[in-house]
Fold:
Amino acid sequence: MSDKIDFNNFYTTEHIEGSMGLKEYIDNYYDEDVEYKLCKDCPNYGKIWMCPPHRENSLSVWKEFEEKYKKLDFIITKINFTEKAKSRKYTLKKFLMKSYQTQ
Structure:
């Protein structure tokens, strides 16, 4: 078994575009518990501008946007990993080292 990663059989991508009402997003999808409890476990917490903790309460910012904007548009690139790729076990460092070896 080779240690090199075959990126051709590693994943596919899916392009998704859509929109929804901003009120619908806030009412049905915004979860302050997820934003603050789960985000604290991320290594980017407090290091990247878009990551919590924020200066302002996020829900109040979304409510302010709701007054100005009625619709939320989104563009997503979904990465679908193959079963073979998901079964491989790599640390991030090992994965990055192997990635560079294939180029």
